[in-house]
Amino acid sequence: MASNTVLMGNLPRGCEICTTIPDILYLPELVFGGLVWILVASTLVVPANPLGWVMFVSVFCFVVTFIWMVVFACGGHHNKPSWAAADFVYHGIAAFFYLSASVALARVTMEMRVGPVFQNYQLDISAVVFSYVATLLYFVHTILSAVRWKSF
């Protein structure tokens, strides 16, 4: 029950980020974002522009989420409301970026289903699923960050 006690009005530091809501979502966001990055990078890039956007979003969100997690783990936020607002804003932007990348990736994958490269199609399907899961994780993190920010 430790996860419910720190939700309202406090920003976690140290190992608390692994036990509090919404900060427990950092690790799944990193895992699914990394999987999208790896799967898109390992496929044949036929329409380079949409997949370039997907790669940018997945790499950008992976790096910034990792940095954000490290800042929270080291206690660099000093428990200020502006950090709670910044957490809400970042995760909202990341959710929007991932939604746009997921839609672009799904469109490209649907166009590739009729082709000789079936293995790339399977990898792209996996990337689409993981991309939508990452979108959902970032969206849930956004909602929970907004609740925490408003109760600060």
Task: Describe this protein's structure.
It is a single chain. With 152 residues, this protein is mainly alpha-helical. It has one domain (25-47, 54-150). 74% of the residues lie in helices and 0% in strands. The protein is elongated.
Brief description of this entry?
With 152 residues, this protein is mainly α. The protein contains 5 helices and no strands.
Please give the radius of gyration in angstroms. 17 Å
Strand residue content: under 5%
Alpha-beta classification: mainly alpha
Compute the number of strand runs. Answer: 0
What is the residue-mean pLDDT, rounded to a whole number? 84
Measured between the Cα atoms of the first and last residue, the distance is 20 Å
Largest sheet: none
What is the string of SSEs from the N terminus onward?
Answer: HHHHH
In the residues, how many domains can be counted?
Answer: 1
Large-scale geometry: elongated
In DSSP terms (H or I, runs of 4 or more residues), the helix count works out at 5
**Helix fraction bin:** over 70%
Low-confidence sequence ranges:
1-8
List keywords for this structure.
single chain, 152 residues, mainly alpha, 74% helix, elongated
Strand-helix topology:
Elements: H1 2-5, H2 26-41, H3 48-74, H4 81-112, H5 118-150
